[in-house]
């Protein structure tokens, strides 16, 4: 009997990379991607919980997969199972739950016989955890590829669930980074986006032997026939050396995406962010002076607890004065277990 699969991916570039890896693994083990409109032997929903809306969409996709595949298995994997597995256990018809710790083992877990109830493989992150190498040679359905070189976050911004869902800092070893870059270049990709949960912390777990600028220099020395784009970087992780590198190296895309979240110093402190409106503004202007035609994207959160009209106006005025190319604006989402969820002055 032919084994077919579908993967539904929600959320960030890291999730998309991990889904590409799972697709490769499943095909190597004899599975075939289901055709559009075709029922599959198994449907994997790679979930996201960064907002309430993302959590709701994840549940909707899980229930949709169960309805459309009455005879097949449905697996909910990733962030939802890592943080809120008890919510998923209440969904009738769900075959398997696996958090991010066990995500790479999903192809093997799918072969285990079901005991009559949902199999839950969600386990906490260990205190020390190495990077799980997920090597790919292609990125299905995309003209440019993503490469996850970093995982985990330890910033614990007061509104954010991600440190709980993604665990401690860990980095893909440099030799593996270069090998996957060569694989993707050999497949004809002309652009690779380096991504991570907290990309600027690349190398934090490698004993001081490597950092983001170091791996970029190593990539540059390979002279690969492709461009490299950096995904989101925190303001404090963009220094003069990195700006000069992006300005001068032709193989690096002249693009920075920088989360601001708020342009009000009081709100930034309540968010547990580590910069001020002044330092953020100075950074954006410095980038623009060094790379006049570069693209600068900014994340902005509205409606954080305690944000009044004056605080909102501070954000508006800061952005109105800056050479920003585009904005990603989204509302605050109250996430259980985060400090901000307990703030009294919800908007």
Draw up the topology in text:
Blueprint: E1 4-9, H1 13-28, E2 32-33, E3 42-47, H2 52-68, E4 73-78, H3 79-83, H4 85-89, E5 96-98, H5 106-109, E6 119-120, E7 145-151, H6 162-166, E8 170-171, H7 174-186, E9 191-196, H8 212-222, E10 227-230, H9 240-248, E11 255-261, H10 265-270, H11 277-290, E12 295-302, H12 309-320, E13 326-331
Parallel strand pairs: 1-2, 1-3, 3-4, 4-5, 5-6, 7-9, 9-10, 11-12, 12-13
Antiparallel strand pairs: 7-8
Helix pairs in contact: 7-8
Word description of this protein:
This protein has 347 residues and is of the alpha/beta class. The protein folds into 2 domains: 117 residues, Rossmann fold; 198 residues, pyruvate-formate lyase- activating enzyme (Alpha-Beta Horseshoe). It has 12 helices and 13 strands. Helix 12 links the parallel strand 12 and strand 13. It is globular. The mean pLDDT is 96.
Give short descriptive properties of this protein.
single chain; 347 residues; alpha/beta; Rossmann fold; pyruvate-formate lyase- activating enzyme; 2 domains; 6-stranded parallel β-sheet; 4-stranded mixed β-sheet; 12 helices; 34% helix
Structural class: alpha/beta
| The CATH H-level homologous superfamily of the largest domain | tm_1862 like domain
Beta-strand percentage range: 15-25%
CATH architectural arrangement of the largest domain:
Alpha-Beta Horseshoe
CATH fold call of the largest domain: pyruvate-formate lyase- activating enzyme
**What is the first-to-last residue Cα distance?**
55 Å
The domain tally reads 2
Briefly summarize what is shown.
The chain has twelve helices and 13 strands.
